[in-house]
């Protein structure tokens, strides 16, 4: 469904994404993980067309989409959420979700109807008339998810939708993410909450300093010494295993 081929992105002298290749199977929930500053959000920015790669290609459903604009990609069926959630504070929840729905529904009544249907799916059905500014952090995360879903994507890029949520809020939103996939949407998620990655994702791609360092199932990557070292520092895997063997 999504294929990233040898993509590099430079910002001046800084190589934020360095020769990364990855693919996401249709129907999957795939994870993109890595330490802070690894280049994860930059990769999303490239896939969703907000920036252009310096080199490499991005293919969506077999078509080369490299260099296409965000609006064109949204129409093709790629939606993303943003790490920093900024709802339109002056609009209510329904109108905020409708902002996404206008992509495919020109009429206000149709867009609001679509927004109401999506709100019900993400558990915001009771909050439709509330000002977006009155939502809790967990509510705003659901709103961000709903706005993206209202564009009727086939591929959804989730940028840390669980960040800032407490364990019970995370537990409550996991079934929502699963139900989105069950409705036919392929998901690629950037996530730091490893427990959620382990429970949701079939495949995980790990980057550090812009480069791919591991890929596999969640269990495979958390057991990979390169991944442990990227998160905890050079020599960490050896120190941890030495500590484990000394009891
Ligand atoms: N528009 C930009 N201009 C210059 N440098 C940038 C830009 N966007 C990102 N960077 C740099 O690229 C690198 C990768 O950043 P990115 O935000 O993609 O990492 P990340 O893996 O998403 O990190 P985090 O988990 O902290 O969100 C960082 O060094 C960042 O400062």
Automatic annotation (TrEMBL):
Cellular component terms (Gene Ontology): plasma membrane
CDD domains: ABC_Mj1267_LivG_branched
Keyword DNA repair assigned: no
Domain ABC transporter: 2-234
Transport is among the record's keywords: yes
Record GO terms (molecular function): ATP binding; ATP hydrolysis activity; L-isoleucine transmembrane transporter activity; L-phenylalanine transmembrane transporter activity; L-valine transmembrane transporter activity
Keywords for this protein: ATP-binding, Nucleotide-binding, Transport
Annotated InterPro entries: AAA+_ATPase, ABC_AA/LPS_Transport, ABC_transporter-like_ATP-bd, BCA_ABC_TP_C, P-loop_NTPase
GO biological process, one term: D-alanine transmembrane transport
PANTHER family: AMINO ACID ABC TRANSPORTER ATP-BINDING PROTEIN, CONSERVED COMPONENT OF ABC TRANSPORTER FOR NATURAL AMINO ACIDS-RELATED
Name of protein: ABC transporter ATP-binding protein
Taxonomic lineage from the root: Bacteria, Pseudomonadati, Pseudomonadota, Alphaproteobacteria, Hyphomicrobiales
């Amino acid at each position: 469904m999504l294929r990233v081929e040898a993509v590099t992105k430079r910002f001046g002298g800084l190589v934020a994404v360095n020769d990364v290749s990855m693919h996401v199977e249709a129907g999957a929930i795939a994870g993109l993980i890595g330490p802070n500053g690894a280049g994860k959000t930059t990769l999303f920015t490239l896939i969703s067309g907000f920036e252009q790669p310096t080199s490499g290609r991005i293919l969506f459903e077999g078509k080369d989409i490299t260099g296409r604009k965000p609006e064109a990609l949204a129409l093709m069926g790629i939606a993303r959420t943003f790490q920093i959630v900024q709802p339109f504070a002056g609009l209510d929840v329904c109108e905020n979700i409708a902002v996404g729905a206008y992509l495919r529904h020109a009429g206000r009544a149709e867009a609001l109807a679509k927004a109401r249907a999506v709100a019900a799916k993400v558990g915001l059905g009771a909050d439709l008339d509330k000002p977006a500014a009155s939502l809790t952090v967990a509510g705003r995360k659901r709103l961000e998810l709903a706005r993206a879903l209202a564009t009727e994507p086939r591929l959804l890029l989730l940028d840390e939708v669980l960040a800032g949520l407490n364990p019970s809020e995370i537990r409550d939103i996991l079934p929502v993410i699963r139900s989105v996939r069950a409705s036919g949407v392929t998901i690629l998620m950037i996530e730091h909450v490893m427990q959620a990655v382990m429970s949701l994702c079939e495949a995980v791609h790990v980057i550090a300093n812009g480069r791919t360092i591991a890929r596999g199932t969640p269990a495979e990557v958390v057991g990979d010494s390169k991944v442990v070292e990227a998160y905890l520092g050079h020599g960490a895997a050896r120190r941890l295993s030495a500590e484990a063997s000394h009891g």
